[in-house]
């Protein structure tokens, strides 16, 4: 059984939570300003990618699925939560979702051009967990990994019970430890925001 992030193990395992989570995303049709900025940042980060296939892990209920389909011919979603995958798959026949643990992905090496990991890494509090997650993503990609992360700025840092920002040097160390190197860091909202989308290539 895949392990969910340790901070709230049961959080994503209930169908009611999956439905509530989905309703809280831009799927409601009225994205907040922060959601629009975030999606625009993912789109900007993906503009520089070349390739046909992408793995979206964890895909959740499909927050960035439409955006990935604008850019890639083949989109595969993976998540450890069956309820999240059920909501993900219910929205379109074309969506193929797979129940999988991000630390132990059931795909061959270099199966996808790109791997996108949205809204996950900032839940991992330990450096070794971040390295292990990124190394797992690195293994299944050919061209690179795009991931959402919270990075401290001079004007902002955040530390909650479930999510935390980290110094840029710590992020670079995790990326290097996973056999990747940072190509670009796209800020979602400037120096007052810790939210970023990071584009990495194999080192
Ligand atoms: C904050 S949500 C992000 C989902 C989606 N990327 C989005 O932006 O809406 C975190 C997701 O990570 C999934 N998850 C937690 N631990 C996981 C693991 N070890 N392997 C795969 N997915 C995991 C949860 O089920 C949940 O769908």
Describe the 3D structure.
With 203 residues, this protein is of the alpha/beta class. Helix content is 32%, strand content 23%. The chain contains six helices and seven strands. Helix 1 crosses helix 4 and helix 5 crosses helix 6. The longest helix is centred in the first third of the chain and has 15 residues. Bound molecules: S-adenosylmethionine. S-adenosylmethionine (SAM) binds next to loops. S-adenosylmethionine binds next to loops.
How do the strands and helices of this protein lay out in sequence?
Layout: H1 15-24, H2 33-47, E1 53-56, H3 65-71, E2 74-79, H4 82-90, E3 96-99, E4 112-117, H5 127-140, E5 141-150, H6 168-177, E6 180-187, E7 195-202
Parallel strand pairs: 1-2, 1-4, 2-3, 4-5
Antiparallel strand pairs: 5-7, 6-7
The chain binds S-adenosylmethionine (SAM).
Poorly predicted runs of 5 or more residues:
1-7
Helix content: 25-40%
Number of strands: 7
Provide mean pLDDT, rounded: 91
Calculate the terminal CA-CA distance, rounded to whole Å.
31 Å
Which molecules are bound besides the chains? S-adenosylmethionine
What composes the largest sheet? 7 strands, mixed
Number of helices: 6
Count of the separate structural domains: 1
Determine the CATH topology.
Answer: Rossmann fold
Q: What is the name of the CATH class?
A: Alpha Beta
Kindly report the spatial arrangement of strands forming the biggest sheet.
3-2-1-4-5-7-6
Provide the gyration radius in Å: 16 Å
Kindly name the structural category.
alpha/beta
* Secondary-structure element series: HHEHEHEEHEHEE
Residue fraction in strands: 15-25%
**Anisotropy-based shape:** globular
The CATH fourth-level homologous superfamily:
Vaccinia Virus protein VP39
């Amino acid at each position: 059984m895949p392990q969910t992030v340790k901070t709230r193990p049961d959080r994503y395992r209930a169908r009611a939570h999956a439905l509530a989570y989905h309703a809280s995303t831009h799927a409601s049709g009225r994205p907040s300003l922060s959601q629009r900025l975030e999606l625009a940042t993912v789109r900007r980060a993906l503009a520089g990618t070349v390739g046909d296939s992408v793995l979206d892990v964890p895909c959740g209920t499909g927050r960035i699925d439409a955006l990935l389909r604008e850019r890639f011919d083949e989109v595969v979603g993976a998540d450890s939560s069956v309820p999240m995958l059920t909501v993900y798959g219910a929205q379109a026949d074309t969506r193929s979702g797979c129940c999988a643990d991000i630390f132990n992905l059931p795909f061959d090496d270099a199966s996808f051009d790109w791997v996108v990991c949205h809204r996950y890494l900032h839940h991992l509090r330990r450096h070794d967990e971040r390295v292990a997650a990124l190394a797992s993503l690195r293994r299944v990609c050919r061209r690179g990994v795009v991931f959402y992360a919270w990075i401290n700025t001079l004007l902002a840092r955040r530390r909650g019970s479930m999510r935390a920002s980290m110094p840029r040097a710590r992020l670079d160390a995790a990326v290097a430890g996973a056999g990747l190197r940072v190509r670009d860091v796209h800020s979602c909202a400037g120096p007052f925001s810790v939210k970023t989308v990071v584009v990495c290539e194999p080192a």
